[in-house]
Specification:
Helix content is 9%, strand content 41%. By secondary structure, it is mainly beta. 30% of the residues are buried.
C-alpha cells in the first residue's frame, strides 16, 4: 500500500547501542508517547517510531483527509515513542464532544484515533470574492481526543482536491 499511496518513504531500521540523530530540513520534532492507543499522522510528518509501535497506511474516508495530505495517512499504534515533524512549534488542541475543533487542512499534521476529519466549506459570499478572513476549506474534528497543528501551510488546499 505504501508504494501505491506515496504516503511514506522507505523505512530504515536502526539497531544496537549508541546515539542516533534524526532531522528533516530544520523542522521541529515533537515526541509523543503512545500507551496502547493510536495516532493518525500525515506520512510526510512522521519521522520515527520505536519498534514497539506498529504502523499501517490507512485510507481517509472523507474529502477532508484528502485535502490534509492525500487520501492516505499513517496510523501508528501501540506502546512507545513516536517522533512527528512540524514547521514551527506545533500546537495541540483538545477536542471534546461539546467543543469541536476546526483547523486549516494544510496546517493539520496529526489527530488521535477516535477523531475523524470532516470537511467544511465556507460558502460565505465574502470568501468567494477573496474578502473573507478565514479559510475556504476547514477540517472539523468532533468527539474526544486531540489535534496537532503547525503554524505553516504545507500546500494550497485546492491543489490536493481530486480533479474531474
Amino acid at each position: 500500500m505504501r508504494m501505491g499511496s506515496g504516503e511514506m518513504g522507505p523505512l530504515v531500521s536502526i539497531e544496537g547501542q549508541g546515539v542516533c540523530y534524526l532531522a528533516d530540513q530544520g523542522k521541529e520534532i515533537s515526541i509523543i508517547r503512545l500507551q496502547g492507543d493510536a495516532l493518525n499522522v500525515n506520512g510526510k510528518d512522521l519521522l520515527a517510531f520505536e519498534d514497539t509501535v506498529t504502523h499501517e497506511i490507512t485510507m481517509q474516508r472523507s474529502v477532508a483527509g484528502m485535502v490534509a495530505g492525500g487520501m492516505f495517512s499513517v496510523q501508528v499504534r501501540g506502546q512507545g515513542l513516536v517522533a512527528i515533524l512540524s514547521h514551527g512549534k506545533p500546537l495541540t488542541l483538545r477536542v471534546t464532544p461539546n467543543e469541536p475543533i476546526f483547523t486549516d487542512p494544510n496546517a493539520t499534521i496529526a489527530w488521535s484515533e477516535h477523531l475523524r476529519p470532516d470537511l467544511r466549506v465556507n460558502q460565505d459570499l465574502r470568501s468567494m470574492f477573496g474578502r473573507g478572513g478565514g479559510e475556504t476549506l476547514q477540517m472539523a474534528f468532533q468527539g474526544d481526543g486531540f489535534v496537532v497543528v503547525q503554524p505553516y501551510e504545507e500546500a494550497s488546499a485546492m491543489e490536493n482536491l481530486p480533479s474531474h
